[in-house]
Amino acid sequence: MKIAVISDIHSNLEAFQEVLKDIDGSDVDKIISLGDNIGYGPEPERVVRLVQERSIISVKGNHELALASSLYANRMNKKTQKSLQITESLISEETADYCKLLPSHLIEEDARFVHGSPPDSETIYMFNPTSTWLKEIFLSFKERLCFIGHTHNLSLFEFNGDSGTQTKLEKGNATLSSDKRYIINVGSVGQPRDGNNNAKYVIWHKDEDRIEIRYIPYDIEVTANRILDLGFPSFNATRLY
């Protein structure tokens, strides 16, 4: 069993299409998205339609949550609020409804999939959690593996039953230990923030108990120019580089 886990496409169709090409050559059994399929980028309608056409299972990210909750949307910073307003103008009512109704988390193949933090948060960022907080997070869910996104940074959180550690994930393979539990941040397809501008995603080789971190180049300029043409904050474009 091989599962491609993607996250934070953020309406970046160019990056998404290149990632799908790579996935199609990797003989995976299913694709799961950890949300934020929309937001920041220029092609929210086409991205969501492609998610649906490819039967990609998805959870709700905080940008989908913002469509459903004005209370949450009003807590976002001004640039993100402007991006959300433009995104709303670019999507159909059907697509908006689809985004709003996505679940907060999924259990597939005995693993948990959530956007921000287990057990079911779309909004909590797992940025350098303290050892105490990390232990509390692991104790909040029962599955051995949990896949997350939201920070746009590849990370591996490891728990031995008593304490947890965090390490940075790099391109290539990481073997998991059967006696440990893990939270795996799969990075971002559409807007990486780790100093490397390739699209990122992970393939979970379940039967081999390992994950494969994939870096995929794409035409950044096409996406960046489209962002600027549509009036999004310029930071949405420049941060892609």
A few lines on this structure:
This protein has 241 residues and is of the alpha/beta class. It has helices at residues 13-24, 44-53, 62-68, 70-73, 78-90, 93-100, 131-138, 220-229, 234-238; strands at residues 2-6, 30-33, 57-58, 105-108, 111-114, 145-148, 154-159, 164-168, 172-175, 181-186, 199-205, 210-216. It has a single domain, classed as Purple Acid Phosphatase, chain A, domain 2.
- pLDDT < 50 runs, ≥5 residues: none
CATH class, named Alpha Beta
Main structural class:
alpha/beta
What is the helix content? 25-40%
What does this structure look like?
This protein is α/β, with parallel strands linked by helices. It has one domain (2-112, 170-180, 190-238): Purple Acid Phosphatase, chain A, domain 2. Helix content is 32%, strand content 24%. It contains nine helices and twelve strands. The chain has helices at 13-24, 44-53, 62-68, 70-73, 78-90, 93-100, 131-138, 220-229, 234-238, and strands at 2-6, 30-33, 57-58, 105-108, 111-114, 145-148, 154-159, 164-168, 172-175, 181-186, 199-205, 210-216. The strands form two sheets. The chain has a six-stranded mixed sheet with strand order 3-2-1-11-12-9. A six-stranded mixed sheet has the order 4-5-6-10-7-8. Strand 1 (2-6), helix 1 and strand 2 form a beta-alpha-beta unit.
List the helices and strands and how they pair.
Blueprint (H helix, E strand, L loop, with lengths): L1 E5 L6 H12 L5 E4 L10 H10 L3 E2 L3 H7 L1 H4 L4 H13 L2 H8 L4 E4 L2 E4 L16 H8 L6 E4 L5 E6 L4 E5 L3 E4 L5 E6 L12 E7 L4 E7 L3 H10 L4 H5 L3
Parallel strand pairs: 1-2, 2-3, 5-6, 6-10
Antiparallel strand pairs: 1-11, 4-5, 7-8, 7-10, 9-12, 11-12
